[in-house]
Design a protein that fits this description.
By secondary structure, this protein is of the alpha+beta class. It folds into 2 domains: 5-12 and 105-163, Alpha-Beta Plaits (2-Layer Sandwich); 15-102, 2-Layer Sandwich (Alpha-Beta Plaits). 37% of the residues lie in helices and 26% in strands. Strands 2, 3, 4, 5 and 6 form a 5-stranded antiparallel β-sheet that branches. The chain has a 4-stranded antiparallel β-sheet with strand order 7-8-1-9, with helices on one face. It is elongated, with a radius of gyration of 20 Å.
């Protein structure tokens, strides 16, 4: 009997790439003419780099900084879905402050959504939820590659990556 091939689905990001994108964004913000003399800034929320804080004088500044950050993330090949934009900017002290946390890990609800999609389209492939990741296995590598293609085309509100392909 042939050994099953497998891969893991995780919701994670490369911290080095994210750090690079944030630093590039900070440089661009410091050089832009429309931010001169304002409180516009972008920085990590904490030492562990679990999110970013955007500070601006008005909503236009906040939106412009977010746009810059999204472009830099795309340039570093990081999904923009890692940004949790569900909270609203908080006004205070003549400025707006917006904390955006990074989305990491697949909870049970997200994992069930992914496994249901796989089972509906490829009944012979076996997805298994293992904590914050999903192991997908099949005797045929072609089916696994087709599953990867299906998941890349699917519109999830969280980032997914494929690891441990064997």
């Amino acid at each position: 009997m042939a050994k099953d091939s497998s891969f893991d689905i995780v919701s994670d990001y490369d911290l080095a790439k994210v750090t690079n994108a944030v630093e590039q964004s900070q440089r661009e913000i410091s050089q832009r003419y429309d931010f001169k003399g304002t409180k516009a800034s972008l920085e990590f929320t904490d030492a562990n780099k679990t999110g970013v804080t955007i500070i601006g004088d008005n909503q236009f500044h906040i939106d412009s900084i977010l746009d810059i950050l999204r472009k830099k993330l795309a340039g570093c090949d990081v999904s923009q879905k890692i940004l949790d934009t569900s909270k609203d900017p908080v006004p205070g002290n003549m400025q707006l402050k917006w904390e955006l946390l990074f989305v990491k890990g697949l909870d049970q609800e997200k994992a069930k959504k992914v496994t249901k999609l796989i089972r509906d389209n490829y009944p012979k492939v076996k997805p298994q939820i293992q904590g914050e990741e999903i192991r997908v296995s099949s005797p045929k590598r072609d089916e696994l590659q087709a599953v990867m293609l299906l998941l890349r085309g699917a519109e999830f509100d969280f980032p997914i990556e494929f690891t441990n392909y064997r």
